[in-house]
Specification:
The protein is mostly helical. It has 9 helices and 3 strands. It has one domain. A hairpin with a 3-residue loop joins strand 1 and strand 2.
Length: 272
């Protein structure tokens, strides 16, 4: 009975993670779209038109209304709303993940490995599909203001798709292998180990992933993205903004490492 209650609580927490994570992803996509809409209003031609209408409004002493100003204000409000909601839902998702990780001290290693693996799958999936980083290239132009020259916002899968479209097949395959396929197979294997821990094959799985774990680019990818974020923000012409996909990917790296250690410890105790 106690075990059933425990499994019910874990199932609820995993369901909450999936629900909140899906909302974070949806809001992140809406934030991306509203940002794109805002960027479309910030090229040189449209900024010149906006400044002209601002001048006309000031010259007419308020008799003429700049309709573009209201449109921009509406887009800005929508952008801010979706940004806040995406971050909030991501924070809630990772908070539930912390609760699951905290269960390490109160549940068996097998239960922690099983439910931790499921949590890792959720965060990995969210990290792969959600936007990772938004980068804009801009330039301050006299009389016009801040003119946006280019805008890019992509997740891991989106970046792979772009590489394939651009003909960089080898690079796309390498990133797919080490940042998508290996982490996915590793997580499913940890799930297998937690279910069939008595199987001799389980020990081979753990040993295999210990050997190839150093080739996984998941944690390297997170560090590299943070470096891009830091260097991008230090430039006068570029602006980088970390998005929720990066936090989900970081969550996957942490939970994956802990579950690997848990599964290894579980099998070690079994051998004794």
């Amino acid at each position: 009975m106690k075990k059933q209650i425990l499994y019910g609580i874990f199932s609820f927490l995993l369901g909450a993670m999936a629900f909140l994570g899906t909302h974070a992803y949806t809001e992140a996509i809406l934030y991306e779209k509203s940002t794109q809409e805002l960027i479309d209003q910030m090229d040189a031609k449209k900024l010149a038109e906006f400044q002209f209408k601002e001048f006309a409004e000031a010259l007419s002493l308020g008799l003429y209304q700049n309709d573009k100003k209201k449109k921009l204000e509406k887009i800005l409000a929508s952008q801010e709303k979706h940004k806040i909601l995406s971050q909030k839902y991501a924070l809630y998702t990772l908070s539930v993940l912390l609760v699951i990780l905290g269960s390490y001290f109160v549940v068996s290693l097998r239960a922690f490995s099983f439910f931790g693996s499921l949590a890792a799958l959720i965060t990995l999936a969210l990290g792969l599909i959600a936007p990772i980083m938004m980068v804009t290239i801009h330039k301050e132009v006299e009389y016009l203001g801040d003119v946006v020259l280019s805008f890019e916002s992509k997740g891991v899968l989106g970046s792979i798709e772009k590489l394939l479209d651009g003909g960089d097949v080898i690079v796309a395959i390498v990133i797919s292998l080490f940042s998508v396929i290996i982490p996915g197979v590793k997580t499913f294997s940890l799930l297998f180990v937690s279910v069939f821990m008595g199987n001799s094959f389980a020990h081979g799985v753990i040993k295999f992933f210990k050997m190839i774990g150093k080739w996984s680019m998941a944690d390297v990818f997170v560090v590299a993205t943070f470096l891009v974020y830091l260097t991008g923000n230090g430039s006068d012409v570029s602006r980088a903004e970390a998005e929720v996909g990066l936090y989900f990917f970081l969550g996957y790296v942490i939970v994956s490492m802990l579950v690997s250690l848990s599964a290894d410890r579980m099998l070690y105790r079994l051998k004794k």
